[in-house]
Design a protein that fits this description.
By secondary structure, the chain is mainly α. It is about 65% helix and about 5% strand. Bound molecules: zinc ion.
């Protein structure tokens, strides 16, 4: 069966509710842990079913946001997820009050109990209408962003299709493209402001209704963070400021000299080489062919995985009108099938999809042995380790895609990932400030953004673009609207991916074992324990950031970037 044969049937929530009530009472009346375990298994199957259907809606809707059927099904999902959450909370309450708790924990993993406790704290029936409203606003944001129709170069382009122009060798094209791009946000400024204001306020209200001081703690619970808190993350950001920002500023200085500009402007940021940024030397089919060869040579496990992805058609890679922007990987539980969504545009980002998103897909595929649907993916900061590390693990094959630009690609990839970290924590610090002060006005939020931006990325000069200079660059950052507090996860994971990069440079066999082990463990453990499984050091420890910087810096210093 291929992806197109996967059949969508809207789950009948009324009959599901009845089934659940039945199963919960069966669970409560069970005579031993085994009987309870059987109920858990039955419930897992129902959840896998619903999850598969909802994911089919999300995928098909994101491939064509103008499709009326999946548009209305998407609305149905938005409204149904909170109801489902309510049903699951009832079950989770039964689970943590189990008479055979300790015995059951051994069968289902303690992490299932931790997740259940967090789920209970983040929900009450009272907040269902507000969660529905929140989901609706999030969908509106996605729709607004994908509605962009920019008239440029004689074409009508979406935001993602503007990217190649924003990276153009010709500085005036870059500048013009950025201005055109930012005009879309400027024209919709009040819509973005209003959407975000509503989202912040509704999240704050949900949090206070649930007994929290503000949304921050609830935001962490929603991210299923059980073994670190906002203070740890704050300390992490402080280390970024101390150790990463200085080297990142140096790298921008190198870039400025490399691309020969007197004064470095914001539209120079994506332009890295006079000779052009490294780009793959062929189209989508050519790249997929090469990725197939790469994964076959990398390991038997990756070979089996990637061939399955191709056979079942589990990709949607080309960009097209009405397609949602960005890229993601998700998992269809009933079919044990990952799915990769992307918008190829001829830049190096296309290869990143075949390594990064494939890293997620590979992990999920290797965790599909778990009964519990909650263990397919780990929490996000751990998930991103699999994907970001895969970007480095596949370095020896990058010549298949970049040919004579391979060194350029490697330099760029490493420098770019490093330069991303200060931006990543900017997004994080901004959100902490926003949810700590939910009554800030849209203008105050913009000022806060700009101040934080100046702290971590002091080189950002918006030239004559007053709109961006007043602090609006974050409108483009979907996570801020759609997945609060998610973003820092990329930076935490990056520090772990560097550890894998260093290990793979030393001993590929041991490094692959560590990597494969954390792929198989899925989400059955919390973040810090997954790190231990992979023999990784925690990014919250001060020594960790310090220890990865040395090898990163010496690799970058070893390359004569002006010659690239
Ligand atoms: Zn990812």
């Amino acid at each position: 069966m291929k992806f197109n044969d996967y059949k969508y049937v809207r789950p009948d929530m009324d009959s599901i509710k009845v089934k659940f009530t039945d199963l919960i009472s069966k669970f409560n009346n069970a005579k031993n842990a085994d009987e309870q375990y059987n109920v858990v298994k039955e419930i897992n199957l129902i959840i896998k079913d619903i999850d598969t259907m909802f994911n089919l809606v999300t995928i098909r809707n994101s491939i064509n946001t103008a499709d009326e059927f999946y548009n209305s099904e998407n609305e149905y999902v938005d409204n149904t997820v909170p109801v489902l959450q309510g049903i699951l909370v009832e079950f989770n309450k039964a689970l943590i009050n189990s008479k055979f708790k300790e015995e059951l924990k051994e069968k289902v993993y303690p992490q299932l109990f931790t997740l259940a406790e967090m789920e209970i704290k983040s929900f009450s029936d009272e907040v269902i209408p507000m969660l529905q409203e929140e989901n609706k606003l999030v969908s509106e944001y996605a729709k607004l962003v994908s509605s962009a129709k920019i008239n440029y170069d004689g074409k009508i382009l979406n935001l993602s299709q503007m990217q190649p122009y924003m990276e153009s060798k010709d500085r005036s094209v870059r500048k013009e493209a950025y201005e055109k791009w930012s005009e879309f946000f400027k024209e919709n400024e009040s819509a973005f402001d209003e959407l975000y204001d509503k989202l912040v306020k509704i999240r704050h209200t949900i949090a206070t209704k649930l007994g929290f001081k503000n949304f921050i703690e609830l935001g962490y619970l929603r991210m299923n963070r059980s073994d670190y808190n906002a203070d740890d993350v704050k300390k992490f950001r402080e280390q970024v400021l101390k150790y990463i920002v200085p080297l990142s500023n140096e790298l921008r200085e190198r870039q400025k000299n490399r691309i020969c500009v007197d004064s470095f402007k914001y539209y120079d940021i994506p332009f890295n080489f006079i000779t052009g940024n490294p780009a793959p030397k062929g189209n989508k089919d050519w790249m997929v062919e090469r990725a197939k060869k790469m994964y076959a040579e990398l390991s038997p496990e990756t070979e089996e995985f990637f061939n399955m992805m191709i056979e079942k058609d589990l990709f949607d890679l080309n960009t097209k009108p009405n397609k949602q922007s960005g890229g993601y990987c998700t998992f269809l539980q009933n079919y044990k099938s990952p799915f990769i969504f992307a918008n190829f545009n001829g830049t190096k980002g296309d290869v990143d999809v075949l390594t990064h998103e494939a890293g997620h897909a590979f992990q999920a595929f290797n965790s599909s042995h778990f009964d519990s649907p909650s263990f397919i993916f780990p929490t996000y900061e751990a998930s991103e380790i699999h994907s970001m590390s895969m970007e480095f693990i596949t370095w020896p094959w990058m010549k298949l895609f970049f040919e004579n630009d391979t060194d350029k690609y490697k330099f760029y990839h490493l420098a770019d990932s490093f330069l991303f970290i200060p931006y990543g924590v900017t997004v994080d610090e901004f959100q902490h400030a926003v949810y700590e002060n939910p009554n800030m006005t849209p203008d105050e939020r913009k000022k806060v953004w700009r101040d934080i931006e100046k702290k971590y990325t002091p080189y950002k000069d918006y030239d004559n673009n007053e709109f961006l200079d007043k602090g609006t660059m974050w409108f483009k950052q979907g996570h801020i609207f759609m997945d609060p507090f998610y973003y820092v996860d990329y930076t935490l994971a990056q520090i772990c991916a560097y550890q894998f990069w260093i290990k793979f440079n030393q001993d590929r066999k041991t490094a692959w074992n560590d990597y494969f082990n954390i792929c198989k463990v899925g989400g059955s453990k919390p973040f810090l324990e997954i790190l231990k499984t992979g023999n990784l050091k925690s990014p919250f420890e001060e020594e960790t950031i310090k220890s990865v910087i040395g090898p990163v810096k010496s690799f970058l210093d070893s390359i004569d970037d002006k010659a690239l």
